[in-house]
Every structure is written in structure tokens, then in C-alpha cells.
Amino acid sequence: MSMSRVVKPDEEAVDDGLLSPSKAVKATSSVDTSQVDKYATNDGETLVHLLKANIGPGILALPQAFKNSGLWVGFAGIFLFGAVCAHATHMVVYSSKELCRLNNRLHLTYEETAKLAFERGPRKLRGNAPTVYRLILLFLALTQFGFCTVYFVFVPQNLKQALECMTGGTGMSQLGFQAAMILPVLLFCYIPELKVLAPVSMLAGILKTTGLILTFYYLVKDLGKPHEPVPGFAGWATLPLYFGSAIYAIGGIGIVLPLENKMATPKSYPGWTGVLNTGLLLCVIMYATVGFYGYLMYGNDVQGSITLNLPPGETLAQVIKILIAISVFLGYPLQFYVPLTFLVPALRKHFHTSRSKFIAEYCMRTAIVLITFVLAAAIPNIGLFVSLIGAVASTTLALLIPPFVEICTYWSHKEKRIPLLIKGSLIFALGLLGFVTGTVSSVMAIVQFFTSGSQEPPYSCEC
Predict the structure, then answer these.
(1) Is 60 in contact with 305 (CB distance < 8 Å)?
(2) What is the pLDDT of residue 455?
(3) How far apart are CA 336 and CA 353, in angstroms?
(4) Residue 458 pLDDT greater than 70, yes or no
(5) Which residue ranges run through the membrane (predicted)?
(6) Across the chain, what does the average pLDDT equal?
(7) DSSP 41
(8) Integer Rg of the chain from CA
(9) What is the structure's pLDDT at 454?
């Protein structure tokens, strides 16, 4: 059975930054309303899904992001980016509602919203609708596979440190730990139906929550002791790397429409005190808290994941690394399956027999896993990956596309054109600035990483 069906958020397909391009359902007489009601989520469940989708390994990289910006610039920047990204998210949500009304649709996904919006926009843009649709799918795939690559870095680094310090030495390099992940990851990713992984997702959520709570305990327990002072502003040179990491953590725009589409009461989703704003505000507060206290605690020694800074001589700290590493590992197949909802059908249509379709699909699954492994093995630095993915894919989805979607959706409303063009231009300019500077800085940092010959972040098991 192929993975050609739609991934549903209620099947626990929503995980760290999960961007689910599930298909929209047309509002026709053929819609099975009993099924819609059966899978509908209440406000509390939707809020939990939203928090789960936006709180992932990216939050653990924010202390290093604060190192690139400075303590107070990083703290203020998180709230600024959070507000801009939240507004851009609302631009897409309200545009989707308007387009649903105009096209007699019940639900629309992000890529479908953008396509329909461009078809209603200025005449010069209408022909670009199919290209925008494919572009969004491409960046959704890049984002998800980027998450998978980060996972192939994050899990081995944390497991290696924990096991080395708990056992006195394993004799395995980080590359060895990464290679050991390949087989279990492949077995998970060969499962054709994502619904089978629902219990795995639940376990991952429990482990991740426990690990994050215990990590925060370490960030604040020694704050009263003298620490090396940290700058409020780290300088302009490294600020673009901060932008990429911040957008990576915040920019989960692709999940907002699938979550709303599954709500029993979608009217409570937008609005000042709606589920969306409540969830995003809680996420931003958590981002700012972890980034602020993590950098304040460890200063310039902060690493790509704050878990790598936990005291190596304490058993509890090593248990935290193992808990979070396992939760992230269990999240890999959930991130992996989302792009398959459109990649598998696109691949299988080029083959004619059931056997050839099956072989092609599983060759693709294998190839994707191996590619993420190779990339992770080549650049064993979480911070560089996070910055690059955030600058390229997350910025495009969260800041560059939404202004066009809103402007095109309401283009026929002449009285709204000028205000929308002004607002959209400001958001687009911010996104473009971050895209260009963040991408260039991330690529330069990766090149420097290769030329410097650095391989693994140094650490010692002695306190």
C-alpha cells in the first residue's frame, strides 16, 4: 500500500515544525460530513497541535542564535519576528477564508490558497499561479527534509555525549552514531501508513516535553552565581545568522491551515484571543525564555544545541540528552512523510505496473534518508543547518509569499490596494533582507567550517 493518501493532523502527523500539505476538500454534495465531524478537533486539541508543531529542535538552537545577535537584541528580535510572522500567518488565513467563499471550497491548503490568489491578482501575475504552487511545495519539501537532516546531526551528537560520559567511552565517532541511525530510520520510513506511527508520535511528545522542562531547570538553577558577561549586541556581521535561526524556529506557517481545516469551531481560530494568536504567543515566550537564559548561562561557549552544554558529569544531564535525542529520532519519520503526500503520486505516475511503482517509491524513500545522512555527516554543526534552512525555506514561506497572497486575493477591492501594497512591501522587504543576508552568511559559515577542518564540537566528560 503506497503513501499516496493525505496526512491528517489528527493522526499525530504534526510534529516539530511539521508543514502538512494535506489536500483540500471541496464543498460539494459529495462531502461526507460525518467524516468531517469525526475527525474534527476542539480548541484545546488544536492549541496542543499548534504548540507541538512549533516547539522542536529549533528552540534548542536559539541560545546560539542569541550569541550571534547579542542578549538584548536577540530577546527583542524574537518578539519582533514573532509579531511579523504571526501577522503574515493571519494574512494567509484570512485570504484562505475569502478564497474558500469565492470558489465554493470548504478547505484550502497553503499552496492551494497561493495558487487561487495569484489567479485573481493582477493580470501580469496570473500566469505565475502554477509556478507559485510548485514553488511552495518545493520549499515545504526542503523545509521538511532539512528538519530530517538536522535530526541526523542532533540525535548522534547528544547520544554520543551522553553515552561517552555515562560509560567512560564507547569507541564510536559521531559518524559511527549517524551510520547506526540509518537502519532504524529506514525501517520507520518504510511503513506505508502514517497512522501506524500515532503511538510513536505520542511517546515522542511526552519525552520531548519532559526533556525540555528538565533542560530549563539547568538554565536557571545557577543564575545567581557569577558568569562571564555577555554583550547586548554582538555586531552586524553575525546578525544574519540569528535571523535564519529565529525564522527557522518561528516560521511554521505551513501548518496553520491544515490545523484550522480540522477544527470543529474554526471561527475561534483567528482573532486577537483566538487559538492561533494564543499558541503563537506561547511559542514566542518559550523561544525568548530558552534563548535568553541559555545564552546568559553559557555565554560564548554555547553550542548548536543547548543540550550539548549540560553538565557532562551529572547523570541527570545525560538522561536529558537521551530523552530529547530519542524524541527527536522518533519525530524523523513524521517529518519525512509530509512531502511524500505529493512526491509519491508524482513519482508513481511515471511507472505502469504495480511492481515498478512499488520499487520506485521505496527507492525514493531510501534515497531521501541516505541524502539527509550524507548532508548531516558532511556538516556536523546544527547551528549552520538551522540558519541556512531558516534563511532560505522558512523565510520564503513565512515572509515572502504571504504579502503576495493577500494582495492578490483582495486585488479586486480597489480601496484596499494601496494599504495592502504598503504593508506587503514592508514585510516582503524584511523577508528579502533576511533571505539574502541570512543565506549568504550561512553559506559563508559553512564554507569556513569546511576550510577550517573542524569536524565535531569539542567536549569533555569532566565537570
Answers:
(1) yes
(2) 53
(3) 25
(4) no
(5) 71-94, 132-154, 174-191, 196-219, 239-259, 271-296, 316-338, 359-379, 385-405, 426-450
(6) 81
(7) B
(8) 22
(9) 55
The residue ranking higher by pLDDT, 13 or 95, is 95
Instruction: Write out the three cell numbers for 135.
Output: 514553488
How far from chain centre, in Å, is Cα 120? 30
Instruction: Name the residue among 315, 330, 323 with its Cα closest to residue 204.
Output: 330
Q: What does residue 8 show for φ and ψ, rounded to 5 degrees?
A: -105, 135
Q: Is 408:123 a contact under the CB 8 Å cutoff?
A: no
* CA proximity to 416, closest of 123, 86, 95, 80: 95
Closest CA to 391 of 340, 337, 341, 445: 445
pLDDT bin (cut points 50, 70, 90) of residue 66 is: very high
The residue type of 197 is: L
The three grid cell numbers given for residue 421, joined into one nine-digit string: 501594497
CA distance 143 to 58: 12
Which amino acid belongs to residue 351? F
- Burial string for 257-286 (b: 16+ CB within 10 Å, else e) reads bbbbbbbeebebbbeeebbbbbbbeebbeb
Alpha-helix residue ranges (DSSP H) falling in 300-379: 315-348, 354-378
Asked if residue 410 lies in contact with residue 101, where contact means CB atoms within 8 angstroms, the answer is: no
In sequence order, what are the beta bridge partners of 263?
Answer: 41
Largest CA distance in the chain: 70
Residues 362 and 127: beta-carbon distance below 8 Å: no
Tell whether the model's pLDDT for residue 3 goes beyond 70: no
Cell 513565512 appears where?
Answer: 398
Distance CA 325, CA 150 (A): 12
* Whole-angstrom distance, CA of residue 139 vs CA of residue 86: 19
Per the document, the length of the chain is 463
Assess contact for 427 and 84: CB atoms under 8 A. Answer: yes
What's the whole-model pTM score?
Answer: 0.76
CA distances, 80 to each of 73, 75, 176, 250, 407 (Å): 10, 9, 41, 11, 22
Give 454's DSSP letter: -
Dist CA 313 CA 62 (whole Å) = 24
Determine the Cα–Cα distance for residues 309 and 382; give it in Å rounded to an integer.
Answer: 14
Nearest alpha-carbon partner for 424 in 92, 19, 78: 92
Alpha helices in 229-308 (DSSP H): 239-250, 256-261, 275-298
Kindly state the DSSP code that residue 169 receives in the 8-state scheme: -
